[in-house]
């Protein structure tokens, strides 16, 4: 009973479009079969060959969903393959009996409506025996087509499921990399506020305001993983201003941005760990004056970002360059694949240049 309900439900899911395509396909097949039947019989054209062949094709099409339903239900995976093949082979007997019965009944009804008599089908048992082997080819073709369709549908679902899992994994990986902000900067900023608030309240207030802007931007990045370069730059300006308040005259900053790259989308918080590395390894270890130079421009359809800072402890950091740069490289690889590039080169004896190359989007 459950199987019958499931079968009826399967029939109810057939759309009008599928019915129309099926009717057109069956009509074309029936047309060619009828032409062959007329040619073989050497008879003058009449309505009988058309009725006989079209009734057979349409009746077969009407019960074909049973085969498709069973093929979907009987899996051909390794654990059920032989059992399912046996079921499909056995199904041929009742399925063909149902088809022949439906075809004979349809022909009787048609003859009653047209000529007022039943169709002369001869001996009923002989008719069944005659019709059974004729349908083996059609049955095998439908089974093959049904399992092919099931295979591709299953394959497509698996691909979609795998793509969703990869997307979730990618999102999680990117979130982890983006959220691994070094506490070094935050601790130093809090210490700076603590040491400044009793000596220079205005300066401490300025640091707190800029830190608040940066943290607010970092939290917003959770909901907005892509930002324009201009939005990123505004947040990073707060970062550099905090660093300038911390190091005073020891740090100078220079920012050069081409107007056409301001609206380019980049991953949020992309520049923070790189600028932090520039300050941490290029300014903090030395008492000498140093500068951080940020530049962004377009070249051959790519967004190029360079960060230049003094060469101090970077000699001891290669080739890892610290966790900030390593996370950035992994982020860009996940987001852009081979389309993005990160390089770190020494310029003379006094400076080092980090270059990011991203597709403009």
From TrEMBL:
Ranges in a coiled coil: none
Positions of the Signal transduction histidine kinase internal region domain: 172-251
One Pfam family, short name: His_kinase
GO molecular function, one term: phosphorelay sensor kinase activity
GO cellular component: membrane
Keyword Transmembrane included in the entry's annotation: yes
Gene3D superfamilies: Histidine kinase-like ATPase, C-terminal domain
TM stretches of this protein: 20-39, 51-71, 91-114, 134-152
Cited PANTHER family: SENSOR HISTIDINE KINASE YPDA
Name this polypeptide is given: Sensor histidine kinase
Lineage of origin: Bacteria, Pseudomonadati, Pseudomonadota, Gammaproteobacteria, Alteromonadales
């Amino acid at each position: 009973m459950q199987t019958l309900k499931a079968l009826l439900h399967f029939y109810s899911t057939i759309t009008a479009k599928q019915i129309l395509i099926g009717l057109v396909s069956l009509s074309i097949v029936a047309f060619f079969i009828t032409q062959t039947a007329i040619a073989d019989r050497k008879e003058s054209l009449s309505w009988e060959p058309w009725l006989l062949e079209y009734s057979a094709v349409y009746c077969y099409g009407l019960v074909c969903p049973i085969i498709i339903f069973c093929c979907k239900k009987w899996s051909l995976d390794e654990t059920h393959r032989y059992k399912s093949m046996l079921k499909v082979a056995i199904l041929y007997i009742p399925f063909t009996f149902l088809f022949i019965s439906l075809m004979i009944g349809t022909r009787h009804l048609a003859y009653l409506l047209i000529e007022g008599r039943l169709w002369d089908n001869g001996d009923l048992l002989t008719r069944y025996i005659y019709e059974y082997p004729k349908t083996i080819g059609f049955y095998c073709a439908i089974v093959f087509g049904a399992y092919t369709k099931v295979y591709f549908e299953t394959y497509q679902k698996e691909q979609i499921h795998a793509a969703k899992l990869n997307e979730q994994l990618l999102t999680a990986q990117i979130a982890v990399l983006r959220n691994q902000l070094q506490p070094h900067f935050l601790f130093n900023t809090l210490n700076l506020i603590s040491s400044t608030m009793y000596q220079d309240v205005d300066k401490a207030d300025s640091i707190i305001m800029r830190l608040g802007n940066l943290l607010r931007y970092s939290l917003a990045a959770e909901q907005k993983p892509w930002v324009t370069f201009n939005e990123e730059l505004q947040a990073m300006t707060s970062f550099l201003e905090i660093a300038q308040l911390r190091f005073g005259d020891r740090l100078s900053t220079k920012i050069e941005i081409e107007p056409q790259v301001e609206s380019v989308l980049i991953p949020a918080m992309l520049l923070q760990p790189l600028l932090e590395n520039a300050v941490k390894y290029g300014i903090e270890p030395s008492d000498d004056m140093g500068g951080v130079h940020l530049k962004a421009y377009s070249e051959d359809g790519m967004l190029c970002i360079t960060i230049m800072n003094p060469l101090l402890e970077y000699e001891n950091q290669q080739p890892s360059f610290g966790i900030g740069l390593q996370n950035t490289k992994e982020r860009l690889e996940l987001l852009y694949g081979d389309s993005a590039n990160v390089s770190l080169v020494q310029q003379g004896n006094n400076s080092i240049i980090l270059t990011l190359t991203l597709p403009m989007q």
